[in-house]
# Entry
Amino acid sequence: MSDPTSLPNFPPPADEHPLRGRMLDVLKDLQVEPNIDADGDIAFQIGEPLQQMFVRCQDGDWPVMRIFGQWLIGDNVPSDPVARLQRCNDFTLQLNLAKVGIANENLVVSVEHVAPQGADLSSLFQISVNLVMEVVQLWHQSFLDQPDQPDQPDQPTDLPSNDYEPRHRPDQA
# Structure
């Protein structure tokens, strides 16, 4: 009898989860070591330092893949949940493919694509990962880009300055 841990880990049959199978092939071709987690998502680590990210694949007439990750929120970010969520909303409204939100005190960034048969999954994956990582950095950086304000005893120190203006709001005259 052979040792079951020595057997290779075969991917699921192609007809069981076609998009997930195609994504597993793409990740292996890019020399990214994928794993299927308990939710059926493809978990992978990428970047320097390594970042844990996921691909969720939904098959159907219009297969959709979502590339996402979650990150601890930096110390430079105000503790006010409304300020955090307003900034997430601002980013989501400004961006084309990415969504930004807060879940369990973590920043969550995702990018979704319709991925029909024949779609260039490798390019979509690489663009999406880069976009997600850039959005995470920009979201945190947006709290640092506040102009220096003189100390104002009336204003709590953990709120962003009032000079931040979301770009999606029309100018008021």
User: Anything to note?
Assistant: The helical segments are 18-29, 81-94, 121-144. Residues 149-162, 169-173 have pLDDT under 50 and may be disordered. Residues 4 and 87 are 49 Å apart (CA to CA).
